[in-house]
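Researcher: Let's walk through a ligand-bound prediction step by step. First, I give you the protein sequence. Second, the SMILES string for flavin-adenine dinucleotide. Third, you return the three-dimensional complex as structure tokens. Ready?
Model: Ready.
Researcher: Here are steps one and two:
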Amino acid sequence: MRFSALTLAAQALRGNRGWSPTWRDAEPKRDYDIVVVVGGGHGLATAWYLAREFGLTNVAVLERSVIGSGNVGRNTTIVRSNYLLPGNIPFYERSMKLWEGLEQDINYNAMVSQRGVLNLYHSDAQRDAYARRGNAMRLHGVDAELLDREQVRARLPFFDYANARFPIAGALLQRRGGTVRHDAVAWGYARAASDRGIDIVQNCEVTGIRRENGRVAGVETSRGFIGARTVGLAVAGASSQLAAMAGMRLPLESHVLQAFVSEGVKPLIDHVVTFGAGHFYVSQSDKGGLVFGGDIDGYNSYAQRGNLPVIEDVMESAMALWPAIGRLRVLRHWGGVMDMSMDGSPIIDRTPIDGLYLNAGWCYGGFKATPASGFCFAHLLATGTPHPDAAAFRLDRFAAGRVIDEKGMGAQPNLH
Ligand SMILES: Cc1cc2nc3c(=O)[nH]c(=O)nc-3n(C[C@H](O)[C@H](O)[C@H](O)COP(=O)(O)OP(=O)(O)OC[C@H]3O[C@@H](n4cnc5c(N)ncnc54)[C@H](O)[C@@H]3O)c2cc1C
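Model: Step three, the predicted complex:
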């Protein structure tokens, strides 16, 4: 269906009863070349790049609920490529470049907004760390600028510069970073993949992984057995549960992360901002609500909701940075289940089981990775070899000691 001002007007006159579904709600076939579990952002992006890059369309995406009900529709929409380590920078920069062309690529308005991401610093040591990060980014061809306090104040006049417990000393700015409308990413990839002939199967829970003669033969689902020689798992917070179905134990823990949206107000901040002296980040949506979040809840859980102590902690961080925020009401908040890896970096790799591939460990930064993750996972599923940009994201790196400790926190998933 074509979307234009004329179609909108015609539909309005007909009571909006003439719209057709954005993608086919497919019935599962008995057999596919490739099955991608599931319909989160990474699974849908994988499906699209399988079709676009490799012409593979005998592919099913199986989702236990509806498209977008997982973290892809629950995140705070921030995209950036301001990483430090060589294993990470090229991958996240590929993602940024794919975001920049995404709307033309899938012909869908995903509201890509490169409004700039500012990481605030509050001490000389933190400034030096950000200078090092910015230099690493620039060496890889990624944009980065170090701002002083007055340059930050000129952009963000509402923060507390006079009397703050942790005075703002400056910021690392990535101008090309920003936000992308998260649901639109899921819907856009789903429509684009479906248009190429890929089956998007909703309400189809994977309940088992069948193996025959030492390799994957397909998946058991709530809608019967579906055969496939290649199965890709991209289930984010449910990764450990799905891996257990194949007899694997992953170096991951599932934790809850919460997000918050305030009542709508006039434009206050043009950028995405992270607070360097506490865990707090904030941006403003096009509807005017402040969208913000902070730490993960400090316990393992598969529940898509969090707890009060972390809510209090996030609000305190908000007040420390921006006291006036206390005059706003929080309209809604929710939680999502994060697949926290031990070093804070992801896994895109084959597993010890022939034909079974894994895409996981996105912690709370996997939304920005969605295009590159789909691109590189599609490469792995189609060719059996890792894409060079994701070659460092190996499953065996924890056993081999080649961790990608981006934050320098060590093997502590609750600190990443
Ligand atoms: C509150 C919050 C804020 C965040 N903010 C950001 C941010 O600003 N920037 C950023 O980069 N990242 C952010 N993230 C992280 C990001 O959202 C995730 O890392 C990313 O979305 C995970 O990948 P996904 O989209 O494929 O996962 P999901 O959308 O969670 O997809 C996983 C899917 O698996 C399905 N599933 C599970 N088990 C089964 C089964 N047995 N059978 C079939 N289907 C199954 C689920 O229903 C779900 O749809 C945030 C996350 C949260 C929760």
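Researcher: And what stands out?
Model: The longest strand covers residues 252-264. The CA atoms of residues 111 and 181 lie 5 Å apart.
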